């Protein structure tokens, strides 16, 4: 059987990034199928220098695909991912639908690659929430060295995390404010232009939001259930790129200098950290990059073994599409696609 990859939600922001990254990383697919809902039928999407015509998800035979990367939201994943899995296709799902399912591995290849072997139970592998993915890439090497006790993280999340309509709204609202047009929000609870909103996803009974709950629960599943993590997730008027201010308390001693040298060598990490004007990364500089950037590495003298970091990454890439493609690469490189694929 040839190596066929289906991209579900191919017309969305993440779906289009998946197609771009499959091409950029020369993923050796023999065929790539773009799947979308009926109202996007026939729409064309780019796949490197090729153009794909979107096929109807509802009519698609998943037994034709080796791997299906889902980027169409939780409802679509809940309905179609189990069907795809039962048809023998391996699903890599970007939604939160299966992340905490004990029979579904939640994988960040730089952090817990071996977990990918657990896909066999349901033929589904879950991609973490975008704000979790970049965080655990930065935490993993430090945890291995000095064992993390507690993490306090504040996020500054771009509007593209809420989808294309939300990104379009930031543009329209910002322009509107300058020209006196209507600046009301449809995708956010309050004005997002020139503002910040401490509310992403729904509120939980304890006063936290589901976005904050996801960061805690997913970090525990991916990295270490003993880590205590508390988060405040904030939406900011940035188009692409999530930033995070991270405070870490360790069991053991680790200096800022040692942490810096460890992070410089860590997979997926790129340290940009000079204690001078501009010596740090900001969201506009991470767009289109694969790296998880780390800046502002410094000790926290208020606790026995503490560090502060600034972590920035393209939320559409490492936060979603890149991580999914890396999981596909992991499956391929570990020979987990079995007899489904005869590599040429
Ligand atoms: C957000 N992390 O940023 C959520 C979902 N992508 O809106």
TrEMBL record:
Positions contributing to NADP(+) binding: 11-14, 39-40, 160-161, 315
Catalytic activity entry: L-aspartate 4-semialdehyde + phosphate + NADP(+) = 4-phospho-L-aspartate + NADPH + H(+)
Quaternary context: Homodimer.
Protein name per its UniProtKB record: Aspartate-semialdehyde dehydrogenase
Enzymatic class: oxidoreductase
The Semialdehyde dehydrogenase NAD-binding domain, residue ranges: 4-119
Enzyme Commission numbers on file: 1.2.1.11
Keywords, ordered alphabetically: Amino-acid biosynthesis, Diaminopimelate biosynthesis, Lysine biosynthesis, Methionine biosynthesis, NADP, Oxidoreductase, Threonine biosynthesis
SUPFAM superfamilies according to UniProt: Glyceraldehyde-3-phosphate dehydrogenase-like, C-terminal domain (SSF55347), NAD(P)-binding Rossmann-fold domains (SSF51735)
Gene Ontology MF term list: aspartate-semialdehyde dehydrogenase activity
Known function: Catalyzes the NADPH-dependent formation of L-aspartate-semialdehyde (L-ASA) by the reductive dephosphorylation of L-aspartyl-4-phosphate.
CDD domains per UniProt: ASADH_C_bac_euk_like, VcASADH2_like_N
Family according to the record: Belongs to the aspartate-semialdehyde dehydrogenase family.
Residues bound to phosphate: 99
Spans traversing the lipid bilayer: none
Alphabetical list of Pfam families matching this protein: Semialdhyde_dh, Semialdhyde_dhC
Pathway(s) served: Amino-acid biosynthesis; L-methionine biosynthesis via de novo pathway; L-homoserine from L-aspartate: step 2/3; Amino-acid biosynthesis; L-threonine biosynthesis; L-threonine from L-aspartate: step 2/5; Amino-acid biosynthesis; L-lysine biosynthesis via DAP pathway; (S)-tetrahydrodipicolinate from L-aspartate: step 2/4
